[in-house]
UniProtKB/TrEMBL annotation, chain A:
<dbReference type="InterPro" id="IPR036318">
    <property type="entry name" value="FAD-bd_PCMH-like_sf"/>
</dbReference>
<dbReference type="InterPro" id="IPR005107">
    <property type="entry name" value="CO_DH_flav_C"/>
</dbReference>
<dbReference type="GO" id="GO:0071949">
    <property type="term" value="F:FAD binding"/>
</dbReference>
<dbReference type="InterPro" id="IPR016166">
    <property type="entry name" value="FAD-bd_PCMH"/>
</dbReference>
<dbReference type="InterPro" id="IPR036683">
    <property type="entry name" value="CO_DH_flav_C_dom_sf"/>
</dbReference>
<protein>
    <submittedName>
        <fullName>Molybdopterin dehydrogenase</fullName>
    </submittedName>
</protein>
<dbReference type="InterPro" id="IPR051312">
    <property type="entry name" value="Diverse_Substr_Oxidored"/>
</dbReference>
<dbReference type="Pfam" id="PF03450">
    <property type="entry name" value="CO_deh_flav_C"/>
</dbReference>
<keyword id="KW-0274">FAD</keyword>
Automatic annotation (TrEMBL), chain B:
<dbReference type="InterPro" id="IPR012675">
    <property type="entry name" value="Beta-grasp_dom_sf"/>
</dbReference>
<dbReference type="InterPro" id="IPR001041">
    <property type="entry name" value="2Fe-2S_ferredoxin-type"/>
</dbReference>
<dbReference type="InterPro" id="IPR036010">
    <property type="entry name" value="2Fe-2S_ferredoxin-like_sf"/>
</dbReference>
<dbReference type="Pfam" id="PF00111">
    <property type="entry name" value="Fer2"/>
</dbReference>
<feature type="domain" description="2Fe-2S ferredoxin-type">
    <location>
        <begin position="1"/>
        <end position="76"/>
    </location>
</feature>
<keyword id="KW-0479">Metal-binding</keyword>
<dbReference type="InterPro" id="IPR051452">
    <property type="entry name" value="Diverse_Oxidoreductases"/>
</dbReference>
<dbReference type="GO" id="GO:0051537">
    <property type="term" value="F:2 iron, 2 sulfur cluster binding"/>
</dbReference>
<keyword id="KW-0001">2Fe-2S</keyword>
Length: 277, 157
């Protein structure tokens, strides 16, 4: 484990350093340093964001919220802007790691890790998030679904970094977030489910059951077509299950993951029905 | 590189490798209450307070601590008298082998500063990043509730 730590003090300096060979960018380090220690990545240089001023903005942008790349999970959780306008984000962030992890880990870090189990990705997919990328050619924006390409793979190219993310306010939607793991804290999800419901409209996102977090658009459209009257739960489930391509791994089997999602969906709709009736 | 670290109110001037973790530097300086166990951000034993907030020193660069106040359990007892959090853990049997206790104590301290009258659920949430293999947690939860009571607060049971 020998690497150099670089501490750029401005975004310009950062961009120059990102052109170096075998350099990894670090914000909170809760993930990168663990992977380095496990020998999964062997960078020559670690570029820390610690000394770059700002980058930790949480801004009300009208119908969206913008979060800078140094915003930790705890900062977002304690933000009044987030609490008021994105209850789904609050639900998911509370399930991340532990207080210690939330004090250091960042939402941007969760995004660039591109793990199908990233807890904060679920509310971001539900809220039509866009990532704001800075690089040698200036700024570009991408929907999060185009940014995350696969496990650990993103659309970032050489010299680029994720500067911020913005996402829709969804304060008037009913939020649902379920995470099934081996224990409550510090566990990577075996399967997770996020939903936003508003009358006959719905948004549905699954975590840990496909190469990326996925949004079940066909099931969303079906729900709208039947005006939210899913007495035909099986048809709805079928459309959801199309998006699932889980794997067998150390945490759970593919079969189990599918069963978990089915049960979570059924349970959610049962309680939703009781709420509405 | 040369670094100034403020630990428990005392300023240390220390020579470090830029890639060194806070955990290693703290132990090198003699703060042995900071425990290494999983070394991979999973167990909470290496918890220290940075500006009053619990963080994991096994995955925080020592260099990152510059300009911040670091607190370890060494700062808690005065003249051989234990802090009330430590005292309370002893009373309930919350410290068995004791290995995880420094982390527990610091996380509890941060919790009680933010929320002096936590409910059992809030205590469980706040402490869920500190693993203990002896107790089953009941005694620790009870200890924290007892502190609230002893400090004259309302216990939300």
């Amino acid at each position: 484990m020998s690497f150099k730590v670089l501490l750029p003090e401005s975004e310009d300096e950062l961009m120059t350093m990102l052109m170096y060979d075998n350099a990894e960018l670090m914000a909170g380090g809760t993930d990168l340093l663990v992977r380095i220690r496990a020998g999964k990545v062997k960078p020559d240089k670690v570029i820390s964001l610690a000394k770059i001023p700002d980058m930790d903005e949480i801004v009300d942008k009208g119908d969206r919220i913008r979060i800078g790349c140094k915003v930790t999970h705890a900062m977002a959780l304690n933000s009044e802007i987030v609490q008021r306008n994105s209850p789904i984000m609050v639900l998911a962030l509370r399930e991340i790691g532990s207080p210690q992890i939330r004090n250091r880990g960042t939402i941007a870090g969760n995004i660039v890790n591109a793990s199908p189990a990233g807890d904060s990705l679920v509310p971001l997919y539900l809220s039509n998030a866009r990532v704001i990328i800075h690089g040698p050619k200036g700024e570009r924006k991408l929907p999060i679904e185009e940014f995350i390409k696969g496990p650990g793979k993103t659309a970032l190219s050489m010299g680029e970094y994720l500067r911020a993310v913005d996402f829709e306010k969804t304060g008037d939607w009913y939020p649902v977030f379920h995470k099934v793991g081996q224990r409550t804290a510090l566990a990577i999800a075996i399967a997770s489910l996020g939903m936003l419901i508003k009358k006959d409209k719905i948004r549905i996102v699954f975590g840990s059951v496909a190469p990326t977090v996925v949004r079940a658009y066909k099931a969303e459209r079906f729900y709208e077509r039947v005006n939210g009257d899913i007495t035909v739960m099986d048809e709805f489930l079928e459309r959801c299950l199309e998006y699932l391509s889980p794997i067998d791994d150390v945490r759970a089997s593919a079969w189990y993951r599918k069963e978990v999602i089915k049960n979570l969906l059924k349970r959610t709709f049962d309680s939703w029905r009781k709420r509405v009736l | 590189m040369k670094l100034e670290l403020t630990i428990n109110g005392r300023v240390h001037s220390v020579e470090i490798d830029p890639g060194e973790m806070l955990l290693d530097v703290l132990r090198r300086l003699g703060y042995k209450s900071v425990r290494r166990s999983c070394n991979s951000a999973s167990c909470g034993n290496c918890t220290v307070l940075m500006d009053g907030k619990p963080i994991l020193s096994c995955t925080t660069f020592a260099a990152r601590a510059m300009g911040h106040n670091i607190e370890t359990v060494e700062s808690l007892s005065e003249d051989g008298k234990l802090h009330d959090i430590q005292e309370s853990l002893l009373e309930t049997g919350g410290a068995q082998c004791g290995f995880c206790i420094p982390g527990f104590v610091l996380t509890t301290k941060a919790l009680l500063e933010e929320n002096p009258e936590p409910t059992e659920k809030e205590i469980r949430e706040a402490l869920n990043g500190n693993l203990c293999r002896c107790t089953g947690y009941e005694s620790q939860i009870k200890a924290v509730l007892n502190i609230t009571r002893k400090r004259g607060g309302h216990v939300n049971e």
